[in-house]
Write a structure and sequence with these properties.
By secondary structure, the chain is α/β, with parallel strands linked by helices. The chain has five helices and seven strands. Helix 2 crosses helix 3.
């Protein structure tokens, strides 16, 4: 298997045109899904001045095994997925988007990938949002990420009975990001299925609106 399987996959775009945008959002799909399947989420989150990049994962998944097992079991795919985000951010920086003009998020496996990337690369992004996601790696893994977030907004939302992402792992991610200096909005939705609800959409859309106002 190729070591960098995600680099040459397609990218879909949505929202405002890049040259009319002050904020770009990297939106990551879940396991078994596609970039196209995230277009409805991008449209629901859309605001004037927000451009969306929806990258496609090879084989419709960012890594092959559970997010919460040994890291080695998901290599080299996990490193390729993290590198894909780095490449997109570098390209956005080259196009004139500062890091504070870039938000990263996703659903399920994409939310886990977004969370892990941001934790490993702590900077003052426009924000992170994780719909039913947590940090990647075994629950008892020691985590010592360098850097701080300078009150960067982070939204984490999910169910207390999610069969794929345990609620306590979402809690752990929220606590770690808080300790790293982020302003975390963690919301639990009792008995919700593994999905995204309107309250989550509204919360993240509000995050984008605040980021845009701070950029004016």
């Amino acid at each position: 298997m190729l070591a960098d399987i995600h680099q040459d996959q397609i990218i879909l775009r949505a929202g405002s045109k890049p040259d009319e945008a002050n904020l770009t959002v990297i939106l990551l799909h879940g396991r078994g899904a596609t970039a196209e399947s995230m277009l409805s989420i991008a449209n629901a989150l859309a605001l004037p001045g927000v451009h969306f990049l929806l990258p496609q994962a090879a084989f419709n998944r960012w890594y092959p095994n559970t997010a919460f097992g040994p890291l080695k079991a998901n290599e080299p795919d996990l490193t390729s997925a993290l590198n894909r985000i780095s490449t997109l951010i570098d390209e956005l920086n080259d196009q004139g988007f500062a890091t504070r003009q870039i938000a990263i998020g996703g659903f399920s496996q994409g939310a886990c990938l977004a969370s892990e990337y941001v934790a490993r690369n702590a900077k003052r992004y426009a924000g992170l949002f994780a719909f039913s996601g947590a940090l990647i790696g075994p629950p008892d893994m020691e985590r010592d990420y360098p850097g701080t977030f300078d009150q960067m907004p982070i939204f984490i939302g999910g169910s207390n009975v999610d069969p794929w992402v345990r609620h306590d792992l979402m809690e752990d991610a929220a606590a770690l990001f808080t300790n790293m200096g982020a302003k975390v909005d963690f919301r639990t939705y009792p008995d919700m299925a593994h999905t995204i609800n309107q309250d989550e959409i509204d919360a993240v859309k509000s995050m984008f609106g605040k980021s845009l106002s701070e950029l004016d």
